[in-house]
């Protein structure tokens, strides 16, 4: 089944070529021109990826991103912006977005980034289920995480980081490996992004009562520690 991509962009001149390009790539593409319509759309229709402009006429794109995550949206979010200097600031923020692209961008670049992001979100080759049914349970195929039977809402990046840690339970996973596997090679951000994601993941796991802990191993990486018997 085709993956669904929602384009959130108020400028037709930008939206049209983008939609056409993505359709040609075989995605099921929808387009909305306001933040509210975007939130309504992702709440109503399962969507793999949202391409989100920051400068929308009603709700600021960052706020749209935040509200979508709060409402439990777990697909990918790629933020695009033309605001001068905005991208550097936005990348370090805890926005819940998975990737960032600055305008103007080439359609070939967009295609490559979309493909890379969707590939990452699918975590290819990890189709089995990991976890302890009484505690943390990661359903890799469905991209869902449960703590004692209750679903924990994670962003795409949080899920990717957690599924790697769970697959390597009680072993250290290096920062370099997490950066390479979860963010693509041409990701230009610092590993601060990784720390932000880990911090958010810890909060969510703790909030859900998960006994296992994500422990930082100084200078090396992170380890998911089992609950002591
Ligand atoms: Ca705009």
UniProtKB/TrEMBL annotation:
GO terms for biological process: regulation of DNA-templated transcription. Coiled coil: none annotated. Residues 4-118 form the Response regulatory domain. Keywords: DNA-binding, Phosphoprotein, Two-component regulatory system. GO terms for cellular component: cytosol; protein-DNA complex. The keyword DNA-binding applies. The lineage of its organism: unclassified sequences, metagenomes, ecological metagenomes. InterPro entries: CheY-like_superfamily (IPR011006), OmpR/PhoB-type_DNA-bd (IPR001867), Sig_transdc_resp-reg_C-effctor (IPR016032), Sig_transdc_resp-reg_receiver (IPR001789), WalR-like (IPR039420), WH-like_DNA-bd_sf (IPR036388). Residues 125-226 form the OmpR/PhoB-type domain. It holds the Pfam family Trans_reg_C. SMART domains: REC (SM00448), Trans_reg_C (SM00862). This is Unannotated protein. GO terms for molecular function: phosphorelay response regulator activity; transcription cis-regulatory region binding. The keyword tRNA processing does not apply. Gene3D superfamilies: 3.40.50.2300, 6.10.250.690, Winged helix-like DNA-binding domain superfamily/Winged helix DNA-binding domain.
